[in-house]
Amino acid sequence: MKAGIVGLPNVGKSTLFNALTSARAEARNYPFCTIEPNVGMVPIPDPRLARLNNYIATKEVVPTVLHCVDIAGLVRGAHQGEGLGNQFLSHIREVEAILHVVRCFENADVTHVDAHVDPVRDIETIETELLLADLQMVTNALERSRKNLRGGDADTALRVRVLERCQTALDAGQAVRALDWPVAAEEKMLRMLGLITAKPVCYIANVGDEESPSAVAAIKAIRAYMQRHDGDVVPVCARIESELAELAPAERAEMLDALGMAEPALDRVARAAHALLGLQSFFTAGPKQIRAWTIPCGATAPQAAGAIHTDFERGFIRVEVYTVADLEQYHSEAAIKAAGRMRLEGKQYIMQDGDVCHFLFNV
Predict the structure, then answer these.
(1) What residues pair up with 292 in beta bridges, in sequence order?
(2) Cα–Cα distance for residue pair 14/206, rounded to 1 Å
């Protein structure tokens, strides 16, 4: 699954992308430096892996990863093709979640497309373009679907209902993600439409210095906006994060300590993106590898087994499950079993975030 980094030009999207992925994508002080989307892999930091490794010796520790896409900056009029907007909007439709980077730093050497920094205005510029792009798409799709409705096809009728509801919301300036879809068939149809404003969003406030008066005011303004629009914001200094990403682990720890930071801010961004996509992790642990695996929230035990190998899902028998806390209390899997804390779960078991698993299967 992919999270797309979006925003106006020159807000720090490519700098943030490089810090997240170490991809070294080009980042320059002019609009449309990025044309084709850059794609990279982002490891999801999870301290539970180290906690497992404290009690289980292994050859390697492997975190789960997220695909991240650096998408070119959008400008006012993008839904009508301004600044290659149609091309860039199509790139956003291909991701499952949006990381919206908002410029909160003042720097005379980095041009702003609207001449001065105003985070809420910039958010509304992007949100308006995404709304108008979706409205244009929904209106066209609705016109075609209504023509096909005469045949009485149930799927077409369902599509028309969903499109009409989306059109009403978009006409009112409301993102489709704000709508509730209690009917499963309607929710499935909505996912098939690929609407941009149906995708979950996390806002990343790119600050020059989080303690500066302008940054404090900018973050406060964004949070007030989020309270009205049900969103989340993560403050990040992309410049500092890019410097941290270039350092060796020991030097990174020193710089974090000097900055008074417990972890890089991008660790929070990566975890926020993971949660935004409705994903969770489970672990496998043994002498060869301790590894985190990604599954959707609500996945069953056989589906989790299938994340490792399709044969595991096809021949699933049961799964042995314990928690990281169990291992920390009893210090070994043998002791967990002896204490009766090792659970045996079947095909109906719904996986919980942080489960440590041994799958039993027969193919």
Answers:
(1) 283
(2) 12
